[in-house]
Amino acid sequence: MGLFSRKPKIPPATPTPTQPIVPPPDFRPLSWEALVTPAHERTKGWYVKGGIVIIILAAWGIITGAWTFSLVLLLIGGIYFLLQNSTPSSKRITIETRGVTFDGVFTPWTSLQSFWIIQTPTYSELHFKTKNIRQSPIVIQTGFTDPNILRKTLSAFLPEDSNREEGVIDMIIRICKL
User: Fold this and answer.
1) Which CATH class is domain 30-38+88-175?
2) What does pTM read for this prediction?
3) Which of 23, 38, 71, 160 could form a disulfide with 27 if both were Cys (CB 3.0 to 4.6 A apart)?
């Protein structure tokens, strides 16, 4: 498979509403703390390269008469620099027989449609697709929790959408440490 190719989408099997969710007899609740977003180590060279790219693009905007482009680009670069200097906060995640609790917000299994785990070279993310089409997927960092244990535990409650891969935008964000 190429860098931008996708696997064919196969809809995951969902349990029928009348089918009760019964945990396996060896089920133990999982709980862990993880960062909200991955922490990227950025060197001074990273900031220098980013600053050079911003200055070159801003200069190009000025030369071509796109003053607003240059102004917006400089503002975005400055705001990004100020906001990304802080470290991401840690949140508690708990997987129970009734559902998932993320930072004190409980979501029952009946509100979730499927799950998938994205594994990258530097971190793993647990994603939950909700039944509410207006709500974006819930994304949780797995921290030091073994993805195989998560997969086994969650498979008792939700179908795994194993066709999901890291999105192109997410891949660019990870590679560029944005």
Assistant:
1) mainly beta
2) 0.64
3) 23
